[in-house]
Amino acid sequence: MALVLVAPLEAGAVTSHAPRHMPRLVGLTRARVYAVMKADQLYFQTRGPGSASGKWVAVAAQSPAPGTLVAWHAQATLTTTMRRPHARQAVPRVIGLSRAQTFAAMKRAGLYFQTRGPGSSTGRWVVVVHQSPAPGTRVAWHAEVLLRVSTHRPRPTAKPVVAVKRTTTTLKHPTTTTTRPAAKTSPTTTTTTTAVSTTTYPGEVTSTTTTTATTPTTTTTVRATTTTLKKAPARYRIGVATWYSYVPGRCATWYLPMGTRITVRDLDSGRTVHCVVTDREGAHGDRVVDLNKTQFSQLAPLHVGVLRVKVSW
What we know:
Blueprint: E1 2-5, E2 20-21, H1 30-40, E3 43-47, E4 58-63, E5 69-70, E6 75-81, E7 89-90, H2 99-109, E8 112-116, E9 127-132, E10 138-139, E11 144-150, E12 166-168, E13 175-178, E14 196-199, E15 205-208, E16 218-221, E17 226-228, E18 236-244, E19 250-253, E20 261-266, E21 272-280, E22 287-292, H3 293-299, E23 307-312
Parallel strand pairs: 3-6, 8-11, 18-22, 19-21
Antiparallel strand pairs: 1-3, 2-5, 4-6, 7-10, 9-11, 12-17, 13-16, 14-15, 18-23, 19-22, 20-21, 20-23
């Protein structure tokens, strides 16, 4: 076992430093581990293949877990390996899976996971209700996925029925009757002969024939048109919120324009915060907002890591 000090303590330095989060080191090469731990001013010790000779290639496991709040100059224990780091893996979708199915899926992907929620401490949880990172996100081999679990399967919720108001527009004069001249059409002509008796001289009768032509009419009907209003777009999203070091009052999303003012509500506690979108987050899917430390701490303690929220604008 080797003990390494990557950031020597200078004489006269102040020892009361703020705590920091343990970085993720699993899958990193030896050179990368030295750089990350030196930047964070932390110690680490190694064990496993190649640790005694200093010829190890990558980190296979670490303790404490990534994201754990530790003191300045704290020490991490790294399990090393002589093999090259694996390629980045896509996080499988485990939401809705049982405990046995989750273990099998994460084992196939070569990933670790940590559980929170009812039944996580006793190992009697039944189903996964949320995960972070989102399914499909590519992470390092043996990375850790945070799962929120429950001892009861959630009841399926009926989708809200959105009533669409339909407006029917009717023309004032939907039917137009047009009469065309008989010369431009092929009408049917009826001839009627009527005998009229005219007396010209005493005892003489004259017969007169009268011809009457009948012209048909052509009727043109215009159909009424119906106009249907389109459904208004949704102005909210429900998903996962996390935090990072950023300017108070500002946040990051992947789907809203810069400068949009949003309201973030914790679905568990009902607390809300407001911030302005001025940055872009890399993760998509269920990840709906990255808050700064100040706004996230108003919803929940920082060590919680992720929250189920509703973002409206």
